[in-house]
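Lecture notes, unit on protein representations.

Consider one protein chain, 877 amino acids long.
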Amino acid sequence: MERMVYFFGAGITEGSEEMKNQLGGKGCNLAGMAKLGLPVPPGFTITTDTCIAFYTAGSKWPEGLKGQVQDNLKKLEEATGKKLGSKENPLLVSVRSGARASMPGMMDTILNLGLTNDTVKAMVKLTSNPRFAYDSYRRFIEMYADVVMGVDRQNFEHAMDELKHKKGVKLDTDLDAADMEALTGEYKAIYKKHLGEDFPEDPWTQLEGAVNAVFRSWNNQRAITYRKLNAIPDEWGTAVNVQSMVFGNTGEESGTGVAFTRNPSTGENKFYGEYLMNAQGEDVVAGIRTPHPIADLERDMPDVYTQLVGIYKKLENHYRDMQDIEFTIENRKLYMLQTRSGKRTGAAAVRIAVEMVKEGLIDEKTAVLRVAPSALDQLLHPMIDPKAKVDAVAKGLPASPGAAVGQVVFNAEDAVEWQEKGEKVILVRTETSPEDISGMHAAQGILTSRGGMTSHAAVVARGMGKCCVAGCGDVIVEEKKKVFHVNGHVVKEGDWITINGSTGELILGQVKLVSPELSGYFGELMAMADKFRALKVRTNADTPKDAAQARAFGAEGIGLTRTEHMFFAEDRIKAVREMILADNVEDRKAALAKVQPFQKADFVGIFEAMKGLPVTVRLLDPPLHEFLPQLDMDKQIEEIASELGVPKGKIVDRIQSLHELNPMLGFRGCRIGIVYPEIFDMQITAIFEAACELKKKGVEVIPEVMFPLVGTSAEMKMLKDSAVRIADAIIAKYGVELEYMMGTMIEIPRAAVIADVIAKDAEFFSFGTNDLTQMGFGYSRDDAGKFLPVYVNKKVLKADPFQTIDVEGIGKLVDMGVKLGRKTRHDLKCGVCGEHGGDPDSIEFFHGVGLNYVSCSPFRVPIARLAAAQANIKNPR
């Protein structure tokens, strides 16, 4: 029979750290800590495969599981000297989830399982602490009702709040033993009222219910959302960890905490975390009470603190990564409940990787692989302009760095709805819960009035790279009224606020944000990455400003300059429209002569910014109708007619004649250059005059001319021959030596199929994967939003093919194009300039098919550099 359960602790650990896929992250790390000889309460882990078998069997325990759980429960009873349901010395357990990948707060946990009317009396007798026993019991009833039976937790919290109000106290800890016993009775009554049955008194029934609930929580809405956002496969399943309880709520000599071996926001090598005395683990992350910083533990319990520091150093040296640890102190005795690789911000990930190399814990390859390319995105996020005058109205905890400006919303649904309308929002909550994940994803940032640096809001925001200010106690949220009060100010839904996740400040109104400085640890990691990558990284840039920004991020050239973007500027659109309205070649040339100086000036600026790096210029690509208003824009048509001094009817006729049923497949790209050669001639002239003038001044220039939408070898030959004739004449006129290349975009499937013939004239290929995807799938990119999310949701497609390259189909066209092209021209330079050029998964594919470079937007250049290095480390070429 297949093994479904593994024991850990008490000197008989059966699992190991290598078994993460079966035992989940928590289970394999509990086994690892037990083998290291750390104080881990014993228990057992039900495997992830069993979770999948549970679903396959129609949400029932697979055959043999009951027997294996009973055998391991017996082992646990022997190891602890306690027995489940005993009236003398009862065993109490926690039941917790643990998937392969860390999913903080997304699945369910139940503590104190095994308490009944009989066992609670035994606990009173054993501990001489009735308050602790009944506090544990009422917590268990609340958790079991919520997690296993689906009763809203608010019902129990309301009863607790009413009692505190009646007694005139503020904190749960101010209630005495009699209060806790009374609450236990009241909680049971709430349970019966909602479910029509008594709270279960049989501990085995409780255990079965709890295990089922943890299995079921793999498919709760928040877990599904988290998996989607973090690309975690649905078929992994979760493990279940059943562990003997240790208690942080026996009094002021006990407590519970969460800590990180380094600061998860900044990466600083300093022990970081929080704890609460007289509390259970869930209290710290739930944000119900604001906890104490871990440094205070040295004052409160120096012996425990010293032991904890020794353990965290041992764990970090063993796992060679920053660890997120959970611990409980029971009557001054320390127990370790969890260790896992800690969630961290992009800035922290970079700093930790670089410093661990310097400390000799890891090598450079490991450091480069350790930082997710998407984490760098956070480093490129804006921060508050240091020159801005900032008047903060309140200060919370700096839970996740960066800054955000947005309009206030008070729940996740509104955050999603507003964001879909294009609004920038900040989600304001008393505290966030896992149900808020979709709203947190939609928001620019998160502000909470309760909770600490390790609360749900803080941990999830850091993982998402969202700015977060937590535990801002001066903020009083009235969610139902959709307002919050802060130090005399009333802030309503829709009002603008700014939050600074690096300082914890809350500012009313909108404050100017600026791009961050990128140097220090970031520069060191990038230098490491550049040692390992084979792919060059270029940028898509249409202005000297974009080009300069990309160079600062380490771009090695421009892979795409879109010349049409230059046509839309106010000072030249008039001449472009004159050219479109021209009735003959002479008039068209006259209008183009007005545009040419502008184009030339643009190229001078871009060539200068790139200082000797290659610049690929794509000639005019979009259909001409895009430069004219639509037929129903009457006012705009009249303005243009007046400005150009032509009859309104002429413009309307031209708009009608240019109208196309399917413009993406119509009169655009190289087709314009063949029908109206004077347009491309003007652009070629502007490119080469700009290049030759700079060359004369001693500035190195490498122009690469790219013809868009080529689908036949005849198009390529005709366009290249004409362009070479013009280019060579200009170079001769200026008397300079200038190297240049002529190539094409491969964006029509036919071009990929006949790439060997096109390569006779093309000196380079640049795969335009946006259009290649559009034409390969037959999906209009502008309209695919109506069905693609459903396709991804229903697993018709693994991912949106416009974001991540479709390896099986479009990828084959790219691979074919490269192979055929190099068959004709062995040194053919091949790159990609679609959106996929900045997507880490796509970059791994492009590396594999042997491209020379990828090109992406300036802010994705560092991400592409890191992804390219990781691709070459995993698959060297």
